[in-house]
Amino acid sequence: MSTQPTKHRDYRTEYARRLQRGFAKGLSRAQARGHAKAEDIRSGGSPGFIDRHSPLEQALRLMRDGVSQTKAAKQVGVSAETLRRYQRLNTQSERAGGRWVIKDLRQVEVLLATRGKLQTVKVTREAASDIGKYWVAVNKFLRSNVKSHLDAFVGMGIRDLRGKLHPYETRPNVLRRLDSAGDFSFIDIYRQTNEG
Question: Cβ distance 118 to 111 under 8 Å?
Fold first, then answer.
């Protein structure tokens, strides 16, 4: 049984070559190393749908509640650099009054009662929050039969990601019909709209 001599790698030379290849492609030093800074990442892409239970999403929620970026990262067990990169890629964020103001423009699918039926629409998370308020009002109306719960949504609607307007369904008889037909379960819809 023969053994071959161990080949020693020249890590310094390999590292220098990696940087040289990166610079030739127009990358920054951090990008060439494979560790791009948060500001090197272009925002506004389409990151797709959201895993609302991931540690990074939990960290964003903590930051919305006033926790610092470093502490939020530590609490969920990720590095501050990873959280910064994720935040820059998936949100528009700025500091105001010592707190992070995070505007989340990613898409989510939510259910909306519109034009006499229940429809799934793709909207930003900010818009989904407004739809959640609509469902709270619908639920209050269905429980109390007090039409004024719907007043704030009469003539209003929400635009999907393609810019199409979906008016809120506020006609009492239509909402009662959808409810009695079992077309929607308020608890399931509200959970889907507001989870996370």
Answer: yes
Total number of domains constituting the chain: 3
The gap between the terminal CA atoms of the chain, to the nearest Å, is: 60
What CATH number does the domain containing 63 carry? 1.10.10
Q: What is the pTM of this model?
A: 0.53
| Residue 33 falls inside a structural domain | yes
Distance CA 180, CA 101 (A): 41
Of 104, 120, 149, which closes a domain?
104
Q: Which residues does residue 159 pair with via DSSP β-bridges, in sequence order?
A: 165
Does 169 share its domain with 188?
A: yes
List CB contacts of 110: < 8 A, sequence separation 6 or more. 120, 121, 123, 128, 131, 189, 192, 193
> Mind listing the pLDDT tens digit for each residue in 46-73?
445 566 678 998 999 899 889 999 999 9
Q: Which domain, by its residues, includes 94?
A: 43-104
